[in-house]
Amino acid sequence: MRIPYVPKTPSTQDETEAAILNRVLTRRGPEGLLPLDRALLHSFPVADAWNTFLGAIRTQTKLSDSLREMLICRVAVLNEADFEWDHHAPILVKAGFPAESLDVLKAPNLEQLSSTTTGSGSGSGFKLSSKDLAALLYTDEMTKNVKVASSTFRRLQEHFNHREIVEITATIGAYNCVSRFLVALDVDERGNAEDDTVST
Questions:
Q1: Predicted pLDDT of residue 199
Q2: 172: number of CA atoms within 13 Å, CB side?
Q3: Could you tell me which residues come within 8 angstroms of residue 102 by beta carbon, excluding any fewer than 6 positions away?
Q4: In this predicted structure, what is the pLDDT of residue 127?
Q5: pTM recorded for the entire structure
Q6: Distance CA 62, CA 171 (A)
Q7: b/e string for 78-93 if b means 16 or more Cβ within 10 A?
Q8: Cα(81)–Cα(182) distance, integer angstroms
Q9: How far apart are alpha carbons 135 and 156 in whole angstroms?
Q10: In the prediction, which pLDDT does 190 show?
């Protein structure tokens, strides 16, 4: 971490900050603050807006858990955001994605994959659906190029309605923001977040 983390129990200056901290803690549940939160809480207003936006992306869209987490994991791979991958890959597996096939999301060129391509070198027989592949290719172009080719967008439209396209786009955009924040500040729970704190 390139700046110190705030303490695991951050101090607050007023009722507004206390309410923000409570909202973040409520969303995180019994596990408490993540290292990401302990970076964001240097700025309570930013942490609050972040918590609201990402909370909506994670819990209020119509996307399946599997699709949402697959997109997030692909963004993590493309942006080399290890913290993001480590946090979301287990959630993807819990949503039903085969753990032994996670490497398919690390393929350098998804165009080489198809609905008949085995998704794991281990011979698991896992196959990406054409629907999943369309969403992943869209993820790649949004993340790498920002601009998306018309052919890629038409491919997405074959599988998703307008609301789903908006939510897919928002999810990809949101987690590009997350990964860029994580990588730029070198936020990583595998680092020494216990000791690397602001002195109080």
A1: 35
A2: 23
A3: 73, 89, 92, 93
A4: 77
A5: 0.87
A6: 11
A7: bbebbbbbebbbebbb
A8: 7
A9: 6
A10: 56
